[in-house]
Model the fold of this input.
Amino acid sequence: MAASALETDRLCKSFGALTVADSISFRLEPGARHALIGPNGAGKTTFVNMLTGRIPPSSGRILLGGDDITQVNQAARVRRGLGRTFQVTTLFRSLPVLDNVALGIAEREGIARRMWKPASRHHEIKDEALELLATLGLKDDARTRVQDLPYGRQRLVEIAIALGLRPKVLLLDEPAAGVPSEDSGRILEVLGSLPGDIAILIIEHDMDLVFRFANRITVLVQGQVLVEGRPDEIAADRRVRDVYLGEAHG
Amino acid sequence: MSGYTSDPRIRWTEWLPWVAAIAFFFTMPEYLALGARILIYILFALSLDLILGYAGIITLGHSAFFGLGAYTAGILSAKYGFTDPFFQLGAAAAMAALLGLATGAVILRTKALTLLMLTLAITSILYEIANQASSLTGGNDGLSGVTVAPILGLFKFDLFGRTAFLYCLVALFVGWLVVRRMIYSPFGAMLTGLRENTARMHAIGAPVYWRLVLVYAISATMAGIAGALLTQVNQFVGLNVLGLEPSGDLLVMLILGGVGRLYGAFVGPIVYLIAQDYLAKQYPEYWYLGIGVLLIVVVLFARGGILGIVDKWLQALSRLTGSARASAR
Amino acid sequence: MTSSLVSVAFHGVAYGMILYVISVGLSVTMGLMGFINLAHGVFAMAGGYVFSTVMARFGVPFPLALLIAFAAVAIASIVLERLLYSRLYTAGELAQVLFTIGLIYASVAIARMVYGTLAVPIVLPDYLKGQVRFMDRDFPTYRVFLILFSALIIMSLWFGVERTRWGAMVRAAVDNRGMAQSVGINTRLLFMTTFALGSGLAGLGGALGADILPVDWAYPFEHLAYFLIVVAVGGLGSLRGPFIAALLIGVADTACKYWVPEFGAFLVYAATVVILLWRPMGLFGVRA
Done:
């Protein structure tokens, strides 16, 4: 069997007596379009934070491309090809959009340590950043400071930075959250046009987006995997409907 | 100012400070001692701005490196007879770099109050050592008998401070070039990112801790060189180069000029030291009161320091002339 | 040998108690408000000056003078908090550090202008002068009083924080400020009263401790490091931690000055570095 892009083996997390993640075994295939859904408080964000290395698991393993990264720190995981976007926009707000993306590319290329040649003369970095921004429709905003952009475009910059790192696995944490409906169409377009060789896991509440984007869905409830399968299977699953009774759905 | 969209070419206005310094040399020969002191503190302030204004590390202990550099130069000269100025500078730089590397590696895993405390503790430890090891450091009385051989065998340190001033000017010029290059480089862009959003830096794969240690060590080296210059110029080193006081004074100077603006490190010490030279001797109590009130006012109303205020005026001016031009059409 | 051990322990404990009474306010307000108040020593100094002045110039008796020192500093701190401190609660660490350094500079200058450069004289009432005999040894009466009275203050404080509603609110807000606000705790009022109490205690400590820590114009600078160390090593927002830290520092400093004066405060600073590296949140830290 081919190595998964990202995999967890009985991942657990407890804060004292509170178990937030209960033996989650999860598998993300290369090139996947996988969604993680669940009601509020199901433990989705904790799970993602464990995947990226922001919090350590209480037990279990995490494997990236077959390699055990459970002990590897966050920045090192990024360097190994694990990218993410944040639910709460985490950008360099007073810097231009171009710089936001360029900083990531520079890290990837190992140029960030260079102290002599001016950054703006590193044309390879700038050109790549501009190309990337163009694919996301942000080229005209390249020199605008992030804080001067409307929120919907800021969410796109989040995705741009993550893509600039050329990840093999991309975790998108509620990419459309808080985005006004006129801009979320753009985000959906962008998501649809992401390179096919990247394995993507998206955490979302917007069921419309989930069902249009994902070809595989995992449902997380109270820190446990309730069910996993194709979108039509999930939509038909009685337990999922029970869990979401009363929840907003697309 | 730094970053991938900035223009790294030196603007003509950036040559003005150097022109002014040379003019000062010729027109105010009686004040060359003060002038050299200002140049040294600008270098010291540049080193602090690198970690404070760019990397966002708040420290009360930067005097540790300044003092270590100062004492290294002094002890090498007075106790061991090494009088070549470049050797003294080199040794001071090396010692300060080592201390910066060692302490940075250890304390940069912490943050906020803990980090602040550790920086204060380290400079206090050095102060105590310098105080106690009086056979080496002269203790409370300080170390005199520091001699500096003529630079390159040609330029003797004269009584009027001419050589000293030009020596410091050259050192500052080199320091300025280095810092300026660094700020506009990818490394400088990275430092700005660190200050802006450290969480994001982790998330783009930057080894944040090691980068902080690196910039801390570089900053320490510069501060050490500044300290050595002070010893060479005064031919004396005393306890006042260590401890809370010089760190606090430097912080005030930098805030006054404007943090994170490269030239804040120029404006601050110039204004502070000239004012101090004039006022502190005549009215010492009023000096401290004035500085205290000024600091409070700056923090509450003018966080960007003098350069921040200049910036606002320039913006307002351009808006005025812009609207004037628009209405004139 | 034992005689000097007892002596060092005794004076060290007295020193430590005073350090704690002064610094506990700093620990609570830093833990509560997240505000780095380097100028805390100014309140202690002010207490010392007020105390000395009302006794020497207005002939106020000792107990009343202590009360006045406490109240005057507490009230002054409320004014400062409302006018200046409260503007900087969200301003970031650098702004707070700079602001409080400015406050130190200004206060120190005013102290020097008003009181000159000498330490203020403290005239003790007759019933606190002299020595007390205990187990074949003589102990200065005032220091014995210091230890006992500080213990009383400390126990009242701990009782107040553990048992009263106000104390519960403080503990809640230290633990989780946002949550405390959400459950309807008026954090603004809480900050103000806690800040006043902490500063008042500092003033009281400064007054009481003028015997050990002479009150002169450079007081906030001289003792800043130790106040901060007590709080950093003890742990922000904690009550017990700084108590242990203060006693350790008091005894260690006294011991060093007595037995190895060549080292000065070196050992205390070195120990601080070691402890903070081992436990960055302090020995009992609630928040770093």
About this structure: Chain B touches chain C at residues 52, 58, 60, 106-107, 109-114, 116-118, 120-122, 124-125, 128-129, 131-132, 244-245, 248, 251-252, 255, 259, 285-289, 291-296, 298-300, 303 (CB under 8 Å). The first helix of chain B runs from residue 16 to 27. Residues 131 and 138 of chain B are 8 Å apart (CA to CA).
